[in-house]
Amino acid sequence: VISNRTKELSEQKTKYEELLTNYLPKEDFEKLKEETRDKTERFKMVTVLFSNILGFTKVAEQDNAEQLIDDVDKFTFHFDEVVKKLHIEKIKSIGDSYMCAGGLPFPTQDHAKQCLLAAMEMNDFVNKVKADVSKDYATFDIRIGLNSGPVIAGVVGRKKIAYDIWGDTVNV
């Protein structure tokens, strides 16, 4: 009985850790496990990519909510795959906005190039979706911005833990 319970707890711990690694960079997850982690880290140079869907708010007021959620989910899922492939860190998505950053949590020399490639691939995907839908269906355009510079990064929250970044590079 005890060995079964131990095995069950071990499996639950593994699932919990896998879930947390979806929300945090691996390095920060390891620091979180240690409980002696620094709360923030400074990065001298990263590239931040911001995107949002043009006209989303207007369509959200008029369109079928379920369809709208499906559309945003489709874009977000694809964007997540792009940033994963290019070794960029997703920071967050809120509604129709998506933010990621290259050059963290591990500094790289090609962060700007990788973010530019991601922006181009995201734009191509939105254009492909637009071309594939019928004329009576609401279509979207995307706005993408890139900015490079220093940031502070860290893990915030106690219940809903999130990895976030701050600084003028993010604000601009």
* Sheet having the most strands: 5 strands, antiparallel
N→C terminal distance: 58 Å
Helical fraction: 40-55%
* Strand/helix succession: HHEHHEEHEEH
| C-alpha Rg (nearest Å) | 19 Å
Q: Write out the strand line-up for the largest beta sheet, numbering strands in chain order.
A: 2-3-1-4-5
Can you count the helices?
A: 6
Q: How many β-strand runs?
A: 5
Low-confidence stretches: none
Oligomer classification: single chain
Strand content: 25-35%
Overall average residue pLDDT: 82
Q: Structural class, from helix and strand content?
A: alpha+beta
Q: What is the 3D form? A: globular
Brief summary of the model shown:
The chain has six helices and five strands, in the order ααβααββαββα.
What does this structure look like?
- With 172 residues, the protein is an alpha+beta fold.
- The chain is 49% helix and 28% strand.
- It is built from six helices and five strands.
- It has helices spanning 2-23, 26-34, 56-62, 65-85, 111-132, 168-171; strands at 40-54, 89-94, 97-102, 141-156, 162-166.
- Strands 2-3-1-4-5 form a five-stranded antiparallel β-sheet, sandwiched between helices.
- β4 (141-156) and β5 (162-166) form a beta hairpin.
- α4 packs antiparallel against α5.
